[in-house]
Amino acid sequence: MSDVDEAVTRAHREGWARVVAALTRRFGDLDIAEESAAEAFATAVERWRADGVPPNPGAWLTTTANRKAIDRIRRENKRDDKHEEARLVHDDDPPEPPGAIDDDRLRLIFTCCHPALAPQTRVALTLRMVGGLTVPEIARAFLVAETAMGQRITRAKTKIKAARIPYRVPSAEDLPARVTGVLTVLFLVFNEGYLATGPDTDPVRHDLTAEAIRLTRLIRALLPEDGEVAGLLALMLLTEARRPARVSADGELVALHEQDRGAWDPALIAEGHRLVRERLAAAAAGVAPGRYQVLAAINAVHTSARDARDTDWSQVLALYDRLVRLDPSPVVALNRAIAVAELDGPEVALAAVERLGDELARYHAYHATRADLLRRLGRSEQSRAAYDTAIELAGNTAETAYLTRRRDQLGWSPPGAATETRPSPPVEGR
Fold first, then answer.
1. Which of 14, 26, 72, 86 is the most exposed place for a label (fewest CB within 10 A)?
2. Where is the DUF6596 domain (predicted)?
3. Nearest-angstrom CA–CA distance, 190 and 210
C-alpha cells in the first residue's frame, strides 16, 4: 500500500463519521451526506497522489465533501437563484440551544437510532453512517445478502427524510426512553471493532472501539445517574484495556489465558473498576443492575486477576447466572458454559453447549467452544471436525489463524483454553 493509500485509509478510519455528521447537520439529508463523503474520499485518492497529502486531511475532506454536496443539490434542483447558492456556500449552522452537547456525531447516532426504525435497521444504519463500514462488511455481520443490506440502509435513509426525523439529541424528557436503543447499537459498534467480522479488514478496529467509547462518555455526561450507561462504559473500558495484548505480532488472536497482562492498559482498568464499584454500591442499596452492569462486573473479575490461574471462576459463574435471567439468549448460555468448564469440567460444559446446537449452528464460536471442550476430553477426531466448521464460518483473520493453530496442535490441551464468544459481550477467552 502506498503512502497516499495509507493516508486515505487512516483519514477514513478516523474522520468518516465526522465528515458525514457535519454534512448531515448542514444539509439535513443522510443520503447526500453519505454520497458526498464517499465522493470526497474517492477524490482524495486521485488528488493526493498528484498534489501530496494536505497538512489537515480531515479539513480537506470536509471542505471537498461540502462542495460535492452543493454541486449535487444544484444539479438536482437546477437552481438559478444566486441567493440560494450563496446561502449554501456561506450560511453558518444555526446555534444550538443552551446546554446542548456540541457533537455532531452524537446527534447522528440518535438520528440513526430513532425508534421509528426497526432495531436491526438502526444497527445497520449506524454501522454505515457512524462506523463507516461498507455495505458488504455490514451484510457479513448480519449474515444477509449485500443487495438486501443495501436496500435496508437505503430505505432507512428514505424514511428518516420522509418522516422528518430531527437531527438532534433528544430533549431531557425524551432522552431516557431513547437511550436504551442507542446503547444497544453502541455496544454492537464496539463489538465490531473489538473483533471485526470481515476478512478484508483489520481484525481489531481501534477506530470503532474508540468512537463507541467516546460516544458512550458523551451519553454518560447527559445521563450521569443512569446505571446501564455507566455499566456499558465500564464494559468497554475493561475490554479495550486488553487490546494491546489480544493480537500477536504474527496477526493471530491471543487467548485470554495467554495474554501478557503487563501489556493491559492500567488507566482504563482503573477507570472501569471504579465504575463497577459505583454500580455495586448502588446494587447494595437496592438498585438492581442491568445487563451491561453485570457484564462489566464479569470483566472486572477477569481484569482483577494478576494471573489467569487466579481468576475467581465461582464469581464469574454466579454473575453469568444473574445475566442469564436478564438475557436468556443462547450466546450468553454459551459464555456461561465456558465458566462451567473451569469449575465442573469439560464434560459438564459440553453437555450444556450441545443443547445449544440447533440455535447456534451457523455461529462459529459455538463450534470453536465445542472443539476446545472435545479437545480437553481427548476426543481429537470430533474436535478436529468442530474446528474445521469454526474455521469455515469465522471471518476474522486473527481468529481464523488462532483456530487453525489450535486444530493443528490437537493432542496438546492446556487448561483454560476455551474460546470466547461474540457478539455476546467479549468476556471469556480473549
1. 86
2. 178-278
3. 8
CB-based burial of residue 281 (10 Å sphere; 0-12 exposed, 13-18 middle, 19+ buried)? exposed
Cell output for 8: 486515505
Other CB atoms within 10 Å distance of the CB of residue 215: 25
| Dihedrals phi, psi of 253, to nearest 5 degrees | -60, 140
Task: Number of helices (H) and strands (E) in the chain: give both, helices first.
Answer: 19, 0
> 102: buried, middle or exposed (CB in 10 Å: 19+, 13-18, 0-12)?
exposed
DSSP-derived 3-state class of residue 103: coil
Q: Which amino acid is at 31?
A: D
* Type and span of the H or E element at 14: helix 3-27
Cα angle: 200, vertex 203, 130; to 5 degrees: 80
CA distance 282 to 8: 46
Domain end point (choices 62, 88, 114): 88
Domain that holds residue 83: 3-88
- The answer to pTM > 0.90 is no
Q: In the beta sheet, which residues pair with residue 253? A: 247
Contacts of residue 214, defined as CB under 8 A and 6 or more positions apart, other chains included, come to: none
C-alpha dist (Å) from residue 349 to 35, 272, 318, 341, 363: 49, 30, 15, 5, 18
Residue-wise pLDDT tens digits, 79-93: 555 445 444 544 544
Are 127 and 191 in a shared domain? yes
Phi, psi of 247 (to 5 degrees): -130, 130
- At position 231, the amino acid (one-letter code) is G
Among 308, 325, 428, CA closest to 369: 428
Query: How does pLDDT run across 286-298, given as a tens digit for each residue?
Result: 899 999 999 999 9
Write the CATH number for 58.
Answer: 1.10.1740
For the chain, the distance separating the N- and C-terminal CA atoms, rounded to the nearest angstrom, is 30
pLDDT, tens digit (0-9, with 9 covering 90-100), for 237-281 = 999 999 999 999 999 999 999 999 999 999 999 999 999 999 999
> Are 192 and 109 part of one and the same domain?
yes
